[in-house]
Design brief:
alpha+beta, Pdz3 Domain, four-stranded antiparallel β-sheet, two-stranded antiparallel ribbon, 10 helices, 49% helix, 19% strand, elongated
Length: 376
């Protein structure tokens, strides 16, 4: 019975989270399209057969489709949900061209496409800003209280009382900023600036992969293996400070936090490409479903926080220059701006096929990782 309840929680929390994020993403496309006087034929949450729908006064069919694994908006002039041009574009009347997506100026089409990922990023910023405003933000000073013996920090010459001010040129304001830099280092050397007795001291240290223990016992990861994380071997026992925000400062804190997540995520992707981080860390729909379910068990607040992180990932990934994704369309528009004409339909179709193969390959790899990773 418990297994059935858990399954329901996982599925419901995942579908609810994905549906909200898809709605936000497609609403970004939708609202900018409307502002540019593009007719929107369909706004769908999910793909496949329609299970519910209604048509508004402007002719847009709002619907929920059977498979809750995505969604789309279909503009007038599109032949499909992928926004491929209709074959009848040249036969449109003047009135139809006025509301056709593919007859809009280049900057208008680019803005409409760009708006989807940006909506996800703005949505995450608003969630984080709301939590910072309501609950405050943890602001523990980046002070080294203790240097562990035989650690990377000790080997580099770090001392108790050092104040971490920068890592690889990035300013460090909180101890958690240092923790994030170390976790995402993948064992790469870090150039650390510390304030010691009124002067800046430069240190070079390399985080070490360390088995995590709690009460003398190893902490296990999702696959049941001992959890290992990169650490430098310092402790911070400073009093935790909760910094309260005004609405404007909370909004700015949300922007900064989102930027940090994007930068570190891109750093992790770069590390996978060059081979310093394993591609086994990639996670797909199964992993997201598990995270959504686990966060839902911890409460709505935690689930919403996780949704902000997933929204950032969705917005960021969709901007990658891969055909089929929004970034792929923007790439095509870049070629159009340079060449002074649209790429041929054959070239675009070839790109879409390559993009499809690439995305499906990543999905299979990520899903395979999830299956091996989790202790089912």
């Amino acid at each position: 019975m418990d297994s059935l309840i858990n399954a329901v929680i996982y599925v419901f929390s995942f579908v609810a989270m994905l549906s909200i994020l898809v709605f936000v993403h497609e609403w970004g496309h939708f609202i900018i399209a409307r502002l540019n006087k593009v007719r929107v034929d369909v706004f769908s949450i999910g793909i496949g057969p329609e299970i519910w729908g209604r048509t508004d006064k402007k002719g847009t069919r709002w619907k929920i489709s059977a498979l809750p694994i995505g969604g789309y908006v279909k503009f007038f002039g599109d032949a499909s949900a992928a926004s491929t041009p209709d074959s009848d574009l040249d036969q449109m009347t003047a009135e139809e061209r006025e509301v056709s997506f593919h007859h809009k100026k280049l900057y208008q089409r680019a803005a409409i496409v760009f708006a989807g990922p940006i909506a996800n990023l703005v949505f995450a910023i608003l969630i984080l800003a709301t939590f910072f405003y309501i609950y405050g933000q943890i602001d523990t000073p980046a002070i080294v209280s203790k240097v562990m013996p035989d650690s990377a920090a000790e080997a580099a010459g770090m001392e108790a009382g050092d104040v971490i001010v920068a890592v690889d040129g990035s300013k460090i304001k909180r101890f958690n900023d240092l923790r994030i830099e170390v976790l995402y280092s993948a064992g790469e050397g870090l150039d650390v600036d510390v304030l010691r007795k009124g002067r800046i001291v430069h240190l070079m240290l390399t985080p070490r992969l360390t088995k995590i223990t709690r009460d003398g016992k190893p902490v296990l990861d999702d696959s049941g293996k001992p959890l290992e994380l990169y650490q430098i071997g310092v402790q911070n026992i400073e009093k935790v400070v909760i910094r309260h925000h005004s609405p404007l400062s909370a909004l700015w804190a949300g922007v900064v936090e989102t930027r940090t997540i994007v930068v570190q995520s891109l750093r992790g992707i770069r590390q996978m490409i060059v081979g310093t981080r394993s591609v086994k860390e990639l996670s797909g729909p199964i992993g997201i479903a598990k995270i959504a379910g686990e966060s839902a068990k911890r409460g709505v607040d935690f689930w919403i926080r996780v949704m902000a992180l997933v929204s950032i990932s969705l917005g960021m990934i969709n901007l990658f220059p891969i055909p089929l994704l929004d970034g792929g369309h923007l790439l095509y528009y870049g070629f159009e701006a340079v060449l002074g004409r649209k790429l041929s339909e054959r070239t675009q179709e070839f790109g879409f096929r390559i993009g499809l193969v690439f995305i499906l390959g990543l999905m299979l790899l990520a899903s395979f990782n999830d299956i091996l990773k989790f202790n089912w």
